[in-house]
Amino acid sequence: MPFFVDVILPLPLPKPFTYQITEAEYAFITPGIRLVVPFGKKKKYAALAVDTHTHVPAYEAKSIAYIIDEHPLVTPKQFKHWQWIADYYMCPLGLVLRAAVPSMLLLESETELVHLQAPVSSLRISDNARLLWDKLASIEKIPLAQVGDYVTAQNPYKVVQELLDHKLIATREEVYGRYAPKEEVRLSLAQHLRKEERLMALLDSLEKFEAQRLTLLQMVQQKLPVSRVAFYKLAGVSKSSVQTLLNKGVFIATTHQVDRLPIKTEAESPLSPLTQAQQHAFEQIQHHKQNPTTHLLYGVTASGKTEVYMHLIAETLQAGKQVLFLVPEIALTAQLIQRLHLHFGKKMAVYHSRYSQSERVEVWNALLENKSHVQLIVGARSAVLLPFSNLGLIVVDESHEYAYKQFEAAPRYHARDAAVVLGRMHKAPVVLGSASPSIESYQNATQGKYQLTTLTQRFKGFQLPTIELIDLKTAQKKKQMQGVFSTAMMEAIAETLAKGDQIILFQNRRGYASFVSCMACGHVPQCTNCDVSLTYHSHSQQLKCHYCDYATPVHSHCTACGTAQPRSIGLGTQQVEEEVVKLFPQAGVARMDTDTTRGKHGHQQLIDRFQNRELDILVGTQMLTKGLDFGGVSLVGVVQADSLLNFPNFRAHERAFQMLLQVAGRAGRSGQQGRVLVQSFDTNHPILVQLQNADYNAMLTAQLQQRSQFKYPPFQRLMRFEFKHKSFAVLQEAAQWFASALRANFPDVLGPQSPPVGRIRNQYVLHVLLKLPADKSTAAPKAQIMRVTHRFEQIAAYRAVRLQIDVDPIQ
Ligand code: ADP
Ligand code: ZN
C-alpha cells in the first residue's frame, strides 16, 4: 500500500500538495513537523506536514527528501486558525504560513547559510556539523541546496539545523536583514599592561596627555571588560582619547552579542487595587469564565482599562494559562509595555518584527512547550499566528485601530477579528478595549454578539478635558493669527507654560507642507511614476513621492509656466514645530513623527524626555494618539483638523472622531482640568460638534444612518478586488470582464473605478467593489468568487494583470 503526506508549502498555492512516503515515514510523521520536499524542476522547500493518508492523488506524487523535526512546530488549533484566515480572507494557506512562521524555520534551497563566531571554544557538535561550520568559515556562504556537496550526512538539513540551534551559523537574510543581532563593543586593558610596573611606566609617559592618562586610570579601575558606550559616559572620557589608546594597543576592543530582551531580575511590583467601577468591569468579564465570550470594554480615556487588563492577566497567569496581549504597533506602545513589564516581566515576552530571527524562533519554541517565561505574549498583528498551547485570555488594546488590518500583502487579515476567532477556538475570553470603539464592534455589542462593559468615569473621578473649537476663518478675518496659531491657542499655550504644565500639539501630517503649488497657474508637481502630488520636504529641499522613491529638488521656477517661487500649501508637523520654537523660545520643544523616530530608540527617547519634563511641548502626528499616559499634560492643541475630515472614504468620519478623541484624551490625566483646543476652517462640521460634546452616541447614530443608506459595513460586507497592470487599456478590459462576471452572480457590484491614487510605480490600478449581505454566510459567495477568479486566471490576455482580493477592506 502506498503512503502519502499532504504538506503546505510556503508558496501561493491553492491547496496542500501530496508527496509519497515510506511506511516507516508514515508511522513517524505527525502533522506540524517540517519536511523537505522537492518542488518544481530543481527547488526544495521546507514544508509543513498537515496530514498522512493512503488516498492516491490524481497526479504522480514525488517522494519527500527529508524529515527535519521530531516534534510538531505547529499545533492543531493553530492549523485550524490559519485555515480560517485563509478561507475568510481568500488567501492561499501557504501565504498564511509564510506570515506566521519565522523565516529561519522555512529554509528554502536558495537560502544562504553564513558562518558565525562561536561564543565558546569547547563545542560539542557532531563531526558533520563541525565540518560544515569550518567550511563556512573559509568560504563566504553556502546555499542550502549545496550543503550536500560538503557533508556526507544522510540528511544534510539535520546538520544545518544543528548549527542553527547552536547559533554557529545563520541564514543570510538574518545577518544582512534590517535588524542584525545586537552587538556591543567592550573594552579592556591589554594583557601586557596588567603588570603593575608596565602600567606605571605607561602612566608616566602619558604625563603630557592628561585626557589619555585619565582615561587609562578609569580603565584600570574597571576590572572586567566594560561596554564602550558605558565607558564614554564614565567621568566624561572622550571618544578620541579612547580611540588613541586603542590605536596604541593599550586597550583591546572585543565584540559581543548582547541580549535584546531586558532580563527582569528585581521583584515584580504588586497591582494597584481596582476602583469600584473597575472592579465591576473586571467581574463582569470574569463572570463569563465558564462560557467565555468576546467583551467590548468601552471605557473613556484614562478610566483605567489597562488596570482592568492587568488584573485579568494576573488571574489568567495564576491559573497557569497563556495570555495574548495585542497592540496596534509595538514601537508606539513602549509606555504600555513598560507598565506590563513592571508587573509581569518574568512571564512576559514581546514578539516583535524587529527582533532577530533566532529570538523569534526562541519565543515560538518556548510557547509550544508552554514555558513560563513566555506566558504573556505582547505583540502586534502577527502575534495572533503564534503556536499557543494553552491560551486563557486575549486582550486587544486600542481595538479600534486600523493598524490591526494588514492591507499591503496577503494574508490581508484583521488581527482583531482573527483574535476573536482564536479566542473561540481556545475557549478563552477576548477583551476588545477602546475609548472610541469601531462602529462594527459597537454594533456587535448592541446586538448581543459581544458583551458590553463600560467605564464612564476617569480614575478618581478626574474630569474629562473640555473641548473648544476655534474657527480659523474668523480668526484670519479678524487678523487674530500668528502663523498657524490663533490668538486663543497662543494664549492657552502661554498660560499652560506659565503654570509649568505640558502641551501636546497635533497635526496629522509629517514633513513641512504637503505640496507646492504655483501661485500663477496653480500647477502642482506630480510624481512621474504615480498619479500623486509630490510632498515637500524642507529639510532636504526636495519634493518626494510617498508611494515610490521618486525625489526631485524643489525648482525655483514653476515647471509649467515659469513663474518664480512656487508656494507651499498644507501644513506639516515640521512647520508647526518651527513656528512654536519661534513663538515660545524659552520652551523645550520636540517633534514626534516618522521622521524623528526612525532610529530604534528614537521614539522611546522622546517619550522619556517628555515624561521627565525635559520638554514642555511635543508636536506630533497620530503617533501621539496612541495610548500615551503623561501626567503633566493639561493642554492639547489640534492645529488644523480639516485634513482629517476630508478623506474620500466611508470610514473617514469615524476615523477622524476616533483620532481626535484619542489625542484629546491625553489631556488632564492626573487630576488637573485638561483643555483641548481644536482649530479648523469648518467648526460646524458634525464630527467636530460631536467631538466637542464627547458624544460617541451621536457620532454612532449619524454614521449608522449613513452607512445603512449607502450600504456599507456594518450593514453590508465589502470585498475589494484590486487590479494592476502597466497598460491602462488591458487593465480596463480585464477589470471590466471581472466586474461583469461578478454581476452575473451578485446584485451589488461597483466599478471598476480608479482609487484616489490611480497609478503607482507606473502600474495603473482599478478597483471593483462587491457588497454582500452582512447577515448571511459568505461561504457560498466565496466559492462563486473563486470560480470567477479561476476563469479570470485562464484568460491569456489578462495573465499579466495582478489581482488582489481584500476582504473587509479598511480604506
Ligand atoms: P486607560 O487604559 O483607560 O487609558 P489607564 O489604565 O492608563 O487608563 O489609567 C489612567 C491613569 O490612572 C494611569 O496613570 C493609571 O496608573 C491610573 N489608574 C487607573 N486606575 C487606577 C487604580 N485602580 N489604581 C491606581 N492608579 C490607577
Ligand atoms: Zn511615485
Description:
This protein is α/β, with parallel strands linked by helices and 811 residues long. 34% of the residues lie in helices and 22% in strands. It has 27 helices and 36 strands. The strands form nine sheets. It has a seven-stranded parallel β-sheet, with helices on both faces. A hairpin with a 2-residue loop joins strand 34 and strand 35. Helix 2 crosses helix 3. The longest helix is centred in the C-terminal third of the chain and has 16 residues, at 728-743. The radius of gyration is 30 Å and the shape is globular. The chain starts with a strand and ends with a strand. The structure holds adenosine-5'-diphosphate and zinc ion (ZN). Zinc ion is lined by residues 527, 529-530, 545, 547-548, 550.
Structural class given helices, strands, pairing? alpha/beta
Q: Tell me the overall shape.
A: globular
The average pLDDT score comes to 84
In the sheet with the most strands, the strands line up as 14-15-13-16-17-12-18
> Cα-atom Rg, whole angstroms?
30 Å
Helix/strand layout:
Blueprint lengths: L2 E6 L8 E5 L1 H6 L5 E6 L3 E11 L12 E2 L8 H13 L4 H8 L11 E4 L11 H12 L2 E3 L3 H4 L5 H10 L3 E3 H5 L6 E7 L6 H10 L4 H12 L4 E2 H6 L5 H9 L3 E7 L18 H12 L6 E6 L5 H14 L3 E5 L7 H11 L3 E4 L5 H12 L7 E4 L11 E6 L18 H12 L3 E5 L4 H8 L4 E5 L10 E6 H6 L3 E2 L2 E2 H13 L2 E5 L8 E3 L17 E3 L4 E3 L6 E3 L13 E3 L3 H11 L5 E4 L9 H10 L5 E4 L12 E6 L3 H4 L6 H13 L10 E6 L5 H7 L3 H14 L6 E10 L2 H16 L5 E5 L5 E2 L2 E11 L5 H16 L7 E6 L4
Parallel strand pairs: 12-17, 12-18, 13-15, 13-16, 14-15, 16-17, 19-31, 22-29, 22-30, 28-29, 30-31
Antiparallel strand pairs: 1-2, 1-4, 3-4, 3-5, 6-7, 6-8, 9-10, 9-11, 20-21, 23-27, 24-25, 25-26, 32-35, 32-36, 33-35, 34-35
Helix pairs in contact: 2-3, 2-16, 4-6, 9-11, 12-13, 23-24, 26-27
Bound molecules: adenosine-5'-diphosphate and zinc ion.
